[in-house]
Each structure stands twice: as structure tokens, then as C-alpha cells.
User: Which sequence fits this backbone?
DNA sequence: CACTACCAACTTACTGCCAGGTAGATCCAC
DNA sequence: GTGGATCTACCTGGCAGTAAGTTGGTAGTG
């Protein structure tokens, strides 16, 4: 009846799971949910990902890879750092516009319930993410297109990531996509023009 | 053996549950967890809160009441609006310093899994919270102590709430309390001195 | 003051469900 | 026929929730 011996099942499982986690969280989905959506059995998922934590780890790794790839793309697509920052925020806007949360933001809220391998990957995601934003701010400062208060560019980068993650989170309960855009615009107004330090 | 006919059990249940939810989330705790901690049975919790959602609703209501009360206190304690804003951020700092998340921020991440009554209460929390910050910004502008970009004070308030919620979220996975403080300082630097609009 | 009826608080004991996970058989392509 | 991928069938444990009984303070009555 259905084309059975698929070789891309693991990826399909990751796709479906990613969507679920971004919506209801890592603790909010079950193997049965994914199996039902894909028309397979839970045992099949266990074949590809023995334990739920294995699936979780793979999920974060893939998400991080894709995210970093998107960042590289932004870097090469626009010479202007202000445009790069705007494109960076657009990454988040796409996510919330599709009624999702950042996979790693969602899992950060569940941090205390996760095992060490997953925690380590989450930490790495935010570390790399913040690092990229920090470099962006440095280049922006040289260009005269971006500015940030204080001497520590890492702090400013942390603030930007935090703001975007938080804006997505809050948007779910209050404000929706419009709320996210509002917060984003305020942030861009703060960093997009010379302010203090 | 133990003093049985206690009249404050419902509050004790709310206290214990609040701590749990702020750590592992609404979907991450069970009646058995709370019962074990308090030395009572799960049936006893069901007596006070028939369904888990009843407990959830009461939890948000109480948290909102206390939060708003703290905001009123801030308003009367300091005449300076900049000091008020700093005190406002200290509310969040206390939470993350105790290894917790904002109860409503945590639940916002679980929004899709919650029933309507809980969702409505969460929306109300953020609405009232943002409203208070917006009024603070307006008073701060009159005083010349605070400034925000653009004409819509609500957007700026949304940005502040989002930033603080996000900073707590990210801090769990990366940066810890120091990370939170870093993001907060960047935010205060942006709003604490005249910038653009 | 003693007796009784009552009631809120809490317990024991249970149900049904769904979760993650496993063992072994089956299917299908090479 | 070998081996990767999938299925059927099952297990165990934990979950929210329920029914019925127990306890202990309190109010009412003579």
C-alpha cells in the first residue's frame, strides 16, 4: 500500500519532531504523535533513535547546523551590517510567523528536565549564536552602522539574542507576531543608530 | 503523628507547585511530586484542586496578584522612574538568582498545551505587566529620566518585558545570572538615557 | 456538660490511559 | 539469503483522576 523501504525516514522523523517541539516542547510530544503523523509505528522511531534523548540530541545538532548555515548566508548576502542584523531578526520572525518557537529557546525552558548531552548542545547553540552576533556588532561598529552601549560586545550580543527569544516567547501569550515585530523594532532602533558607548 | 487538620494546605500546595513549575514547567511536574514534597497524598491535592488545570489557573492568578502588588510597591517606594525601572528588573533578577523562571514566562512556552482558562490568565498577566511598564516609561519621559524610540510606548514596554523574559530563558542554557545581568544592563543603558525618539 | 450530628480535610485503594522502551517476526531490496 | 527497515505484540511505570471510607474539630441540643 505505502512505499515502505524509505531511506529518508530518519530525516522525516526529525522534521516532524522539530515542528512538534517548536510548538508543544520536548516534554510535550510523544513517539506516538510522530508515528501517527508519519503513518509509521513507534517501534520504527525507536529503531532510528533508540531513546528519546537520542532524538533530542540529533534535533538540536541539526537545528544548530542549519541555523549557523543561515548565518553564514546572511554574512555573504549583504555587505551592510545593519541589513545583516535585520536579516538576522527575520530568521526569528519567520519562526514565530509559523506559530513556532525557536527550538533551542523552547528547550531552554525545559532545561532542568533534560539530560547532560542535550544540555551541552543547547549551551553550544546559544554560545555560537551569541558569538556570531558579537562579531556582527563589531563589524557594524567599524562600519559605523551599528552601535552598542558599554565596552563588552558579548553583553550586547547576549541582549539581542535574549530580546528576540523573549519576544517570541511573550508573543505566544500576548501580542502575537505584531508584538514580536514591535519588540524587534525597538531593538533595531537601539542598535541601528549610534547611541551611548 | 502530624498535625492533621491544617487549614493552609491549599496555600502550601500552591507554594510547592509554583516552585516546581518555575523550575521544570507545568507539564514537567506531577501531583505525586507535590504530594511527596508536602508529605500528603495526591488525592488530597485533588480535593483542593480537582483538576490540574484548576491548580494551574489558581497559580497564575496568585502569581499575577503578587507581581502587580510588587509593582505598586515599587511605584510608591521610589520617586525616580529610573530607579523604578531598576527595581522592576530586580524582580526578575531575584527569580533567576533562585534558579527559577518567571512562572508566566515558563507557561508561555507551554502555551499550546494549555486550556483556554489558563491561556486567558497568562495573556492577562502579560497585558497588565506591559501596561505598567508603559506607564512607567511615560512618567519617565516626563521626568526626563527615561527615553524610548518611536511614538508607541506600548511597543517599548513590550520590548522591555520580552528582553527580561528572554534573558532569564537564555540564562538557563548559557550565561547564568551573569548573562541575565549583562542583558539587563544593555537594556537599562538603552532606556535609561535619552536616545532617539 | 455529655451526647450527637455534621462537615471539611484527608486517606486508602483503585481505575484507565498513555508514556517510553523492548523482543522477535516479517518484509523487501540488493 | 543477508541485512537494513519496519511491524506486531508486549511490558513496565507513571500519570491524572475517582470512590468510598476515616478522622477530628465544631456546632447544636437537652
Assistant:
Amino acid at each position: 500500500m505505502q512505499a515502505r523501504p524509505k531511506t529518508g525516514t530518519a530525516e522525516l522523523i526529525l522534521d516532524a519532531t522539530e515542528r512538534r517541539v517548536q510548538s508543544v516542547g520536548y516534554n510535550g510530544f510523544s513517539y506516538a504523535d510522530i508515528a501517527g503523523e508519519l503513518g509509521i509505528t513507534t517501534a520504527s522511531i525507536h529503531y532510528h533513535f533508540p531513546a528519546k534523548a537520542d532524538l533530542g540530541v540529533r534535533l538540536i545538532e541539526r537545528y544548530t547546523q542549519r541555523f549557523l548555515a543561515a548565518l553564514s548566508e546572511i554574512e555573504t548576502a549583504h555587505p551592510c551590517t545593519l541589513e545583516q542584523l535585520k536579516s538576522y531578526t527575520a530568521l526569528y520572525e519567520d519562526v514565530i510567523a509559523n506559530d513556532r518557537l525557536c527550538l533551542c529557546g523552547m528547550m531552554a525552558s525545559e532545561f532542568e528536565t533534560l539530560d547532560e548531552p542535550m544540555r551541552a548542545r543547547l549551551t553550544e547553540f546559544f554560545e555560537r549564536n551569541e558569538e556570531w552576533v558579537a562579531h556582527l556588532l563589531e563589524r557594524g561598529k567599524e562600519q559605523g552602522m551599528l552601535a552598542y552601549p558599554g565596552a563588552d560586545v558579548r553583553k550586547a550580543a547576549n541582549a539581542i539574542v535574549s530580546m528576540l527569544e523573549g519576544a517570541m516567547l511573550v508573543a505566544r501569550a500576548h501580542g502575537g507576531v505584531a508584538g514580536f515585530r514591535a519588540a524587534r523594532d525597538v531593538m533595531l532602533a537601539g542598535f541601528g543608530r549610534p547611541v551611548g558607548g
